[in-house]
Amino acid sequence: MPHLTWQKSSYSTGGEGECIELAAAPPSGHIHLRESDHPTTIATTTPHALAALIGVIKSGKSGLPARR
Fold first, then answer.
1. 67 vs 47, which has greater pLDDT?
2. Mind listing the pLDDT tens digit for each residue in 12-40?
3. Exposed end of the chain (fewer CB within 10 Å): N or C?
4. Secondary structure class of 47 (helix, strand, coil)
């Protein structure tokens, strides 16, 4: 995998652990996600699929509590 620049959410507390990190992978357009506690486990998706997932989570229709 090429060198990726990982970014944490602005909502992250800045400490280590419990953070989802994202990295864009041009030119493919894929988005890579990882848990900061397990940086060698990487999931790959498309921007469209990630946006759909975030939308479902925010709506509360996922069965998970919506973040306020």
1. 47
2. 766 666 788 999 988 888 999 999 888 89
3. C
4. helix
> Which tokens sit at 11?
């909502």
* Nearest in space to 38 (alpha carbons), one of 54, 10, 16: 16
- Output the pLDDT for position 23: 96
**E-strand spans in the chain?**
7-8, 20-25, 30-35, 38-45
pTM of the model: 0.73
Residues 6+ apart with CB under 8 A from 4: 23, 24, 25, 32
DSSP state, residue 17: S
**Amino acid code (one letter) for 15:** G
Residue 52 confidence (pLDDT) = 92
